[in-house]
Amino acid sequence: MNATAPTSRYFALIPCAGNGSRAGTAGPKQYERVAGQPMIWHTLSAFAGVKRIARTLVVVAPGDGFFERNPTTSALVVPCGGATRAQSVANGLRELRRAGAVDSDWVLVHDAARCLITPQLIDRLIDHCSKDEVGGLLAHPLPDTLKIGENGRVAATVTRTDKWQAQTPQMFRLGMLRQALEGADGQVTDESSAIEKMGLKPLLVEAGAQNFKVTYPEDFAMAEAVLRGRAR
User: Is the pTM of the predicted complex or chain greater than 0.85?
Assistant: First the structure.
């Protein structure tokens, strides 16, 4: 009798080591309260609602202290944040391996400040990517016309027909992503970019415009409105 091949598992990795300098907050933006809770709680709650996620790992900056002061999550929190997002993710992948993940397992990397993610969107990404040879990411077709600026004036207009806004989670095999990040030398702003540098083409999985990343001060009010609306 042939042995049954082990089933790949799904892990979530949340980089949570940034300081959110563009958000105008006194501290890291992911800990600001939105709709009555720190933003990171909304993010972690969505992943906790997906039964297929075997473990969620949160990468925080050394000396962060937030989770020690607020020990209310079942996620594995590790103070291994790096100077860049790519470094934090690479360090998080090493910690996932220490926690028992293997190269053939899937890792869903998600922005801590993308607090409007839902279990339904996470499941949608898994459903679309779990049979794919590369993996993929949530994304939203660009609705706006893009302009290239030069000295405060329009230098050119960019067609929007084939443009997508990259979102997260971004889902790839642990081994493939680790190799991609090692080859990218930290010069990437998301995981898909690292995979693309290997000559691969990640799958685009359409998501809604609500899965935006809280980046600027005005984004907090929009996120608050969406979350309050869902609670009704």
Answer: yes
